[in-house]
Amino acid sequence: MAEKQAVAPPWTDLIRLVFGGMATQVVGLAVRLRLPDAIGEGERTADGLAADFESEPAAMNRLLRGLAALGVLRESKPGVFALTPVGELLRADRSPSFHSLTRMLTDPAVATAWQHLDHSVRTGGPAFDHVFGRDFFAYLADDPDLSWLYNAAMSQGTGGIAGLVAVHQDFSGVRTVVDVGGGDGTLLAAVLRAHPSLRGVLYDSAAGVAQAGEVLAAAGVADRCAVEVGDFFAAVPEGGDLYLLKSVVHGWEDERAARILAHCRRALPAHGRIVMVEHVLPDTVPADAVPTTYLNDLNLLVNGNGLERTRGDFEQLCAAAGLTVEAVTPLAGTDLWLIEAVPASADPLG
Question: What is the pTM of this model?
């Protein structure tokens, strides 16, 4: 007769949650120091790394052991460490990399705003604005290093799913794709590479498209892609058959999100489509929910003006923008969805 497997008591899950903030600090420090790059392909000793970073050897060893317990490193013998596959993703000198994304999410400014989560819950407004006296993007405008890090983080986050969007989204009948809020062009470059007959228009702020030229050139699609600078709250470029918005709508509350979509609706031809790449929350939180989706929803509350939405929320948002949701399809291998909308009869902008 098979023995019953022991079930961990609830307090073990509680302790893991309570210690989660400490884990974030440990990983954040490792990335700021670029410890994963210093370890590289082989093994390094705690004493050697302590010398490299002018640190106290015993304390460095304790940091490395903490990273090993978190699955970032492995300790092959006492005081000797190597990267795990998770740790490899934190290297800045390799691809794919989540170095910039991790640095941005663990940046002291972002972490400081999270310490005022209670303000956001009480008021429904961003704690970041409350703490720093300006919104996140105004803060970025005054901090070139953090602005670069933010753009790199968005590119890294998009890079992980760009190829999947290019493969799983139907681009039949499309001649021109307009990527609204497309940053450095990581997503649009993947789409154009996968579909050589397509042309593209990359549309974002001047800061957003700052690195777009090199990204498009590296992908070999610069000759098929125009880069336009503008404000999607004011207008979007005309001439597209498909308007692509990846993680744009979730960054804004309903009024401004609907305005972005309404500008896309106005630019659409009768046969055109809008495709949003977003999280779609179920109506109730399932037992096997992905916690990061809900934590990101809170992050959008604390550090910005956005939110994650249910299918019903997207349908209402699109209706306000003169659009009808036609399909909501999970993007295989991710926790994102492809939300496809077409023009309704009325133009909300008149």
Answer: 0.88
